[in-house]
């Protein structure tokens, strides 16, 4: 067993930054009041909550602090936006467009609405991993009420032309929601510049703790609340607010924004080192969505023909490396990633996908260690695969 531990799965989650933890702790211990109580402890908590809201609103370019709703996670923000916006004002039918490579936190509520009277179009991205504005224009209808396209894809890291898509949606009278769980803090994010009506965020992707999130909802936009009860968050999200979590989220976001001018290029250089190193050393490996016009600095996704993603992951884990594969093991069946299939990746190759995502504590040595470890792992797995020669012959033929 190895002692070395290299974390390369920052798109799955990040460690909480110590500065974030330091900022939030007093709101768990000393200032623990319920932000809705009228006595001093409550007023202190409420002040901290509203201060956090203002800081988040400022960071994302919102017009007003009350456009920010604190939630428990990105999934809650997505569910609230999809269901709450589609069913606003008692609506029970209409047309919804979601991109086919959304996170399941968007797809599942859309599919549920599809069983309840709404019509859902899943818009495929192009092979470069981008939802093309012409394709959205063709899919929009007079009865389209909501369009949801993620800002940055969590598996392949491609960035979508949200401002253009929002303009098209608005021209046809539809709202535009974007899932920005992977982009907030990582690249410029400004709700006014993007022109979105709603946006979802997740705290644990930006070095705040798990169980924190936020939803941007443009002022004046009607939305049926998803969580109902005590009417907190201006009646849009009931439940006693997680004040410490809100403080953590605001602090984490400010740190991301402050450090991005140096951190963005650093991560992009590490990503390029990884991509060049992996493609140069592993025969037939490919970078997914290699032609994307804009990609996130911290995510790279590869297909490595002839190996199963899970086997690769377990061998890397044994060497102390944490990475991710596109295929998810659910109820015993190995399903290839819907994201890779949506960009035209053949099923047999989608099974051999590897997502590497970099972050605040990733070093060149970490990337080099992954490469050194991966090359012999892939060799070994390919030698054990009786179909490998055939797969590669097909590839060589396709290249001719
Ligand atoms: C694009 C995207 N949306 C939504 C989520 C869900 O966020 P959370 O884990 O905070 O519920 C994730 C997390 O993996 C994500 O990557």
- Give the CATH H-level superfamily of the largest domain: Type I PLP-dependent aspartate aminotransferase-like (Major domain)
Please report the first level of CATH classification, the CATH class of the largest domain: Alpha Beta
Biggest sheet: strands side by side, in what order? Answer: 2-8-7-6-5-3-4
The small-molecule ligands in this entry are:
pyridoxal-5'-phosphate
The oligomeric state is single chain
Short description:
By secondary structure, the chain is of the alpha/beta class. It has helices at 18-24, 40-60, 74-86, 104-115, 133-139, 162-171, 191-194, 232-235, 243-281, 309-318, 338-342, 347-350, 364-383, 388-399, and strands at 6-7, 68-71, 94-99, 118-123, 144-148, 175-179, 198-202, 213-217, 286-287, 299-303, 321-322, 328-330, 333-335, 353-357. The protein has two domains: 6-13 and 261-399, Alpha-Beta Complex (Aspartate Aminotransferase, domain 1); 18-255, Type I PLP-dependent aspartate aminotransferase-like (Major domain) (Aspartate Aminotransferase, domain 2, 3-Layer(aba) Sandwich).
Identify the notable features of this structure and list them briefly.
400 residues; alpha/beta; Aspartate Aminotransferase, domain 1; Aspartate Aminotransferase, domain 2; 2 domains; 7-stranded mixed beta sheet; 14 helices; globular; binds pyridoxal-5'-phosphate
Plain-language structure description:
This protein folds into two domains: 6-13 and 261-399, Aspartate Aminotransferase, domain 1 (Alpha-Beta Complex), CATH 3.90.1150.10; 18-255, Type I PLP-dependent aspartate aminotransferase-like (Major domain) (Aspartate Aminotransferase, domain 2, 3-Layer(aba) Sandwich). The protein is built from 14 helices and 14 strands. The model has no long low-confidence stretch (mean pLDDT 95). By secondary structure, it is of the alpha/beta class. Strand 3, helix 4 (104-115) and strand 4 (118-123) form a beta-alpha-beta unit. 42% of the residues lie in helices and 14% in strands. The strands form four sheets. The chain has a seven-stranded mixed β-sheet, sandwiched between helices. The longest helix is centred in the middle third of the chain and has 39 residues, at 243-281. Pyridoxal-5'-phosphate binds at residues 73-75, 78, 103, 105, 150, 154, 179, 181-182, 202, 204, 213.
């Amino acid at each position: 067993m190895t002692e070395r531990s290299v974390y390369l799965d920052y798109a799955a989650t990040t460690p909480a930054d110590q500065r974030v933890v330091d900022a939030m702790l007093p709101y768990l211990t000393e200032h623990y009041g319920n932000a809705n109580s009228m006595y001093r402890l409550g007023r202190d908590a409420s002040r901290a909550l509203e201060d956090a809201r203002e800081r988040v609103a400022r960071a994302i370019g919102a017009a007003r602090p009350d456009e920010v709703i604190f939630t428990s996670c990105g999934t809650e923000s997505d569910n609230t936006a999809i269901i709450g916006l589609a069913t606003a004002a008692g609506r029970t039918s209409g047309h919804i467009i979601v991109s086919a490579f959304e996170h399941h936190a968007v797809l599942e509520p859309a599919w549920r609405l599809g069983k309840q009277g709404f019509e859902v179009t899943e818009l495929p991205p192009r092979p470069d991993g981008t939802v093309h504005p012409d394709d959205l224009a063709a899919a929009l209808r007079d009865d389209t009420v909501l369009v949801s396209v993620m800002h940055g894809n969590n598996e392949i890291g491609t960035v979508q032309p949200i401002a253009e898509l929002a303009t098209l949606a608005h021209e046809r009278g539809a709202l535009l929601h974007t899932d920005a769980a992977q982009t907030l803090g990582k690249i410029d994010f400004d709700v006014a510049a993007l022109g979105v009506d709603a946006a979802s965020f997740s705290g644990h992707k930006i070095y705040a703790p798990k169980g924190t999130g936020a939803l941007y909802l443009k002022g004046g936009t009607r939305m049926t609340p998803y969580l109902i009860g005590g009417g907190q968050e201006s009646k849009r999200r009931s439940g006693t607010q997680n004040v410490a979590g809100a403080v953590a989220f605001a602090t984490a976001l400010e740190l991301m924004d402050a450090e991005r001018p140096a951190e963005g290029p650093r991560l992009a250089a590490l990503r390029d080192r990884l991509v060049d190193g992996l493609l140069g050393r592993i025969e037939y490996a490919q970078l997914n969505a290699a032609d994307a016009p804009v990609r996130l600095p911290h995510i790279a996704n590869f297909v490595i023909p002839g190996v199963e993603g899970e086997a690769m992951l377990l061998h890397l884990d044994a060497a102390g490396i944490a990475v991710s594969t596109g295929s998810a093991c659910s109820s015993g069946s190995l399903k290839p990633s819907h994201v890779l299939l949506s960009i035209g990746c053949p099923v047999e190759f989608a099974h051999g996908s590897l997502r590497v995502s970099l972050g605040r504590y990733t070093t060149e040595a970490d990337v080099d260690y992954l490469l050194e470890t991966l090359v012999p792992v892939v060799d070994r797995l390919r030698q054990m695969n009786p179909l490998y020669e055939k797969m590669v012959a097909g590839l060589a033929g396709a290249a001719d």
